[in-house]
Amino acid sequence: MAKTLELLFLTEGGKSASLSVADPIEPVDIEKVKTAMNEVIASNVFTTASGSFISAKGARVVERNVNEYEVN
């Protein structure tokens, strides 16, 4: 199972944008996540078609299962 921490942001254009972090440390420390998200916003490093990140919208851990099958 692959896990990803998705950081969700609101952009200047009112749209949602996300950054993904592979293999997050669990349990997730929400205070560290908030701090990291605020630092990303303050650094203004990322921009999207709808503008820069202006606020933190949320965070979530996404779990992905892949089942492969032989068809030969």
Major β-sheet, in short?
4 strands, antiparallel
Beta-strand residue percentage: over 45%
Which regions have little confidence, pLDDT < 50, spanning 5+ residues? none
Query: N-to-C SSE series?
Result: EEHEE
Reading side by side through the largest sheet, how are the strands ordered?
Answer: 2-1-4-3
Q: What's the N-to-C terminus distance?
A: 25 Å
What's the average pLDDT?
96
Envelope shape: flat
What's the β-strand tally? 4
Which structural class should the secondary elements be placed in? alpha+beta
> What fraction, in percent, of the residue positions are helical?
10-25%
Kindly provide the radius of gyration, computed on alpha-carbon positions and rounded to a whole number of angstroms: 15 Å
Count of DSSP helices?
1
Protein name: DUF2922 domain-containing protein
InterPro entries: DUF2922
Pfam families: DUF2922 (PF11148)
